[in-house]
Structures are given as structure tokens and as C-alpha cells.
From TrEMBL:
InterPro entries in alphabetical order: FAS1-like_DH_region (IPR039569), HotDog_dom_sf (IPR029069)
Recorded coiled-coil stretches: none
Domain of life according to the entry: Bacteria
Signal peptide residues on this chain, from the entry's feature table: none
Protein name: MaoC family dehydratase N-terminal domain-containing protein
Gene3D superfamilies named among the record's database cross-references: Hotdog Thioesterase
Length: 388
């Protein structure tokens, strides 16, 4: 692959310029939020149960911090993959989030101002690879900033990606009945933590450097669970957005691979062809044949979902009186069908910032059952301080 090069010259013209986005056609509905937390494996009652939500600090159902990305038409990756890089494929490689406070709730209309940021080219296992970044700035209908997401995509030679597949990873792991019971118990252990915390505060004063956050486990993942995630992104329901025209061939995909995913013109003629679960580059998540063309051994999860798992893990621990204010998530490997996901984190610092917020800093890690790193990063979480 030493002779392989990437032509990134077309990307330069887009950097720093606001690009189009696809606005929602209707306000956020309560069931949009419920569908999201269900798909993201986040059973926090405040986001789906009316009675629990009414007794919360908000007095009503609100969306989790991770929900902003569900309102975007490109899973947050759009400003990080503009410009034509011929004969390339791309993967979502990570994101950085800043949260400003306002929660999305039923009735809101969310707008996303998207600005391509920068890129660098480095050598990876795929050969020369462009690490391209772009910003998503989410606002509600009042103009209040909700969050900023700086996403990163990997863009690499298509042939290099397909050549990297290991046939030994084609098949799902075979879990015994006893192992499944153990997984289910580990899954519920984190759910029980959410129930135990309930509406109570997790006080900053009671957290110490070196503390380990409770382990979060979910899975095994499957084509069914990935399809459930896909449908929880609002854009992936026909007619939910005023879609912008997206030229997937300009992103390096061939017509056969690109299809008509989310094409607003084709949607009025034959919407089946526009559904990325079945046609277009996104079908690799659900169909191993196409996953292997871009370097994945079998069905694999969505990068944006992985970033949401990070936010939900940390905000669930913080409770309704806390908030993730900043986080980084660097993706190292995919969630594959048959695997489980294990999240851990450690408190590494405590501080009071310039705004007077009491913060804890954590290092978080996501692995599968074999200890393969899927995602890692740091985050700052605001917690209430005990009065007096």
C-alpha cells in the first residue's frame, strides 16, 4: 500500500464555511425521546416514564444529553466528511462534546449549524488516512445553544479497507446459557444503580479521586439491536426531515455502493431505495457482505451510537442534578454483532472551574468481552455541592 495516496484537495474549499443541514419537519415528540433511550440501552425513567419524570427536577419528561445527535441527518458526521476524496471509504472515528445546559424536550425544534473544521493525513493500518473534523452546533427554537459536537471521520483508500478484513472474525461468538445469565445480571446491576440514585443528588463532596464508576454492560449486540438504533435517529424514518441533497459519490463511494440513501428526490419516487438500512453505504452495518467491503468482518454498530453510550454512561451516574459539561470519545474499534460492550471509568481529578461549577474529571473506557478497546477518552462532569 506504500504507493497509495489520497487526493484531499477538494476538501479545502469547504473548511470554515457553514454548510446546509436538513431541518426537522415537526417538533420533537415524547415518543422520539422514548424511542431513543430504548435504542441506546439507557433505561433512565426520567426519559420515558411520565410519573417519574413529573417528580424530577424538571417536572416533566426531558431528553438525555445524548439526544441532540438524533436530530441530525448525518449522525453528526456530515461536517467531517465534506469534499471529494476519490476512491475512499469513511468511518466515524470519534467526537468531542460541549454541553451548555438546556435540555431538549417535547415540542422543541432543534437546529444544527454545521461548519467543517480541519483535517490531517496520517499513516494507519489502512494506509494514508485523512482525519477530518467538523463542528455541529445545536440550538433550540429560542436560539439557546444546547451543545457543540466536534466529530471526526476517517477517510481511507477503499481497497485498503476491504483488504484488512480478518476471516477469523466473520462469525459471532457462541455464548452459553450460563454466560447469557451472567451478562443479564451484569446489565441489570447498572440499571439498579439508576434506580437507587433516583431523584437524589450525587454530591461532589462525596466523590474522591480514584473512585471507580459502576460498570455498565449491555449486549450481546445483534443485527436486530443495530436496526433498532438506526430507526431511533429521526432522519431514518421516511419524511421526517426536509432533506438536503447529498452526493455520496462525491465522498468516494461508487454508485453501486452509494445508492440513493436519504435522497429527497428519489424518496418521492421509490423510498425503498433511499433507506440506508438496506441500500447505500450505511447498509454495511446490517449486512456483512457490505461490511467487509470497508474493512469490517460482520455487522457493526454506529459510531454516533457509541458516542451516545459514553454520554449516557456518564450522565446516568451523575444523576438528574448533575451534567456532563465536556467529553471526548476516541473510537478504537467497532461494536460487532455477538459482542457485548463493557464501560468503566475512574475519577482522576476534582476542580472548581471559572464559572464556579464543581467538576469531577473521569477517564472512561469501553471494551468488548475480549478486552479489545472500542472507545476511550476523558470527561468533566458537574455535580452539586452540599449546602453549607
Amino acid at each position: 500500500m506504500s504507493s497509495v495516496t489520497l487526493d484531499t484537495s477538494d476538501v479545502d474549499q469547504y473548511l470554515g464555511k457553514v454548510m446546509d443541514f436538513s431541518p426537522l419537519r415537526e417538533p420533537i415528540a415524547a415518543n422520539d425521546i422514548r424511542r431513543w433511550v430504548h435504542a441506546m440501552h439507557f433505561p433512565n425513567l426520567v426519559h420515558f416514564d411520565p410519573d417519574f419524570a413529573a417528580a424530577s427536577r424538571w417536572g416533566k419528561l426531558v431528553a438525555p444529553q445524548s439526544f441532540a445527535i438524533a436530530t441530525d441527518d448525518g449522525h453528526g458526521a456530515a461536517p467531517a466528511c465534506v469534499g471529494c476524496i476519490p476512491n475512499s471509504h469513511l468511518l466515524f472515528a470519534g467526537d468531542e462534546w460541549w454541553f451548555y445546559g438546556p435540555r431538549i424536550e417535547p415540542g422543541d425544534m432543534v437546529k444544527n449549524e454545521r461548519i467543517p473544521f480541519d483535517y490531517t493525513v496520517k499513516e494507519t493500518g489502512f494506509g494514508p488516512t485523512a482525519f477530518q473534523r467538523g463542528d455541529n452546533n445545536y440550538y433550540n427554537q429560542h436560539g439557546d445553544p444546547i451543545a457543540k459536537q466536534r466529530s471526526t471521520s476517517l477517510r481511507y483508500n477503499a481497497q485498503a479497507g476491504g483488504a484488512s478484513v480478518n476471516e477469523a472474525d466473520f462469525n459471532d461468538p457462541d455464548w452459553s446459557d450460563e454466560e447469557i445469565v451472567d451478562i443479564e445480571n451484569r446489565v441489570f446491576s447498572w440499571v439498579q444503580m439508576l434506580h437507587d440514585l433516583g431523584h437524589k443528588e450525587r454530591w461532589w463532596d462525596d466523590v474522591s479521586v480514584g473512585d471507580q464508576l459502576p460498570e455498565r454492560v449491555f449486549g450481546p449486540h445483534s443485527i436486530a439491536s443495530f436496526a433498532t438504533e438506526w430507526r431511533a435517529y429521526i432522519v431514518n424514518t421516511w419524511g421526517s426531515m426536509n432533506l438536503r441533497k447529498n452526493d455520496l459519490e462525491a465522498l468516494g463511494f461508487t454508485r453501486e455502493m452509494a445508492g440513493y440513501e436519504n435522497d429527497p428526490d428519489m424518496m418521492k419516487v421509490n423510498p425503498f431505495l433511499t433507506d440506508g438500512a438496506y441500500y447505500g453505504p450505511s447498509r454495511g452495518h446490517l449486512f456483512p457482505k457490505y461490511a467487509r467491503r470497508i474493512g469490517m468482518p460482520r455487522g457493526y454498530g454506529y459510531g454516533a451510537s457509541m458516542g451516545s453510550w459514553v454520554t449516557d454512561f456518564l450522565s446516568g451516574w451523575a444523576g438528574e442534578h448533575g451534567m456532563v459539561v465536556h467529553s471526548t470519545a476516541n473510537y478504537r474499534g467497532p461494536a460487532l454483532t455477538g459482542d457485548i460492550t463493557i464501560q468503566t471509568a475512574e475519577v482522576v481529578d476534582k476542580m472548581v472551574d471559572e464559572e464556579g461549577r464543581h467538576l469531577v474529571q473521569v477517564k472512561h473506557l469501553m471494551t468488548n468481552q475480549r478486552g479489545v478497546k472500542m472507545c476511550l477518552g476523558t470527561a468533566e462532569i458537574a455535580l452539586p455541592k452540599k449546602p453549607g
